[in-house]
């Protein structure tokens, strides 16, 4: 059936050319990559040390290799380096976060945040050399104004953001997945079209020289894997 469908479709296919490894090399590479990624940490204390914009663009293009529903690629990654725009984003984000920490969040939520020593004050939004604002496209807009549906948008953009974080770590940089809620101010400040909705606000750069992170432990293998 699969072969017949490929023969009948008007769309073209090309041979898959991937890289394969022997089991021993596979095991070695998978272990090495896990150990590398296990060093990744969320950072809230950034340096203002400059980063070449080409690096950020490469990181984003890596994220854009993610699979997506019907290959719609329903994402836009906005790079913000302009200090004036970063200041506007910080001001708007802190307004929303102040409301969150002073009434919107439940007591349980606030208690769960205690180990991170975080609050509504977000200086990293101006200090980090770049902000990557990820937008999800609820639908595509054609030049004539026609709307075209996108599929599995949340899942597709979520996968792309996971690859984005891995690419940031691979480049030797750090990031924070910041989610001020609501985030509509990002759409307004960056003047994004009506079909785009803010998904994540990610400061990217080098860590501050004196940066610290909470002493947390990730779940063990038995806690995250179930084998049938």
Describe this structure as you would to a colleague:
This protein is 41% helix and 14% strand. It contains nine helices and six strands. A hairpin with a 5-residue loop joins strand 3 (139-141) and strand 4. Helix 3 (53-63) crosses helix 7 (153-170).
Write the layout of secondary structure elements.
Layout: H1 2-8, H2 23-37, H3 53-63, E1 75-80, H4 83-104, H5 107-113, H6 124-127, E2 130-137, E3 139-141, E4 147-149, H7 153-170, E5 174-175, H8 184-189, E6 196-205, H9 221-224
Antiparallel strand pairs: 1-2, 2-6, 3-4, 5-6
Using DSSP, what is the number of strands?
Answer: 6
* Helicity range: 40-55%
- Count of DSSP H/I helices: 9
What Rg, in angstroms, do the CA atoms define? 20 Å
Overall pLDDT level = 94
- End-to-end C-alpha gap: 29 Å
Rough shape?
Answer: globular
Strand content: 5-15%
Q: What is the N-to-C succession of helices and strands?
A: HHHEHHHEEEHEHEH
Class per helix and strand makeup: alpha+beta
The biggest sheet, with number of strands, parallel, antiparallel or mixed sense and barrel status, is:
4 strands, antiparallel
Low-confidence runs of at least 5 consecutive residues: none
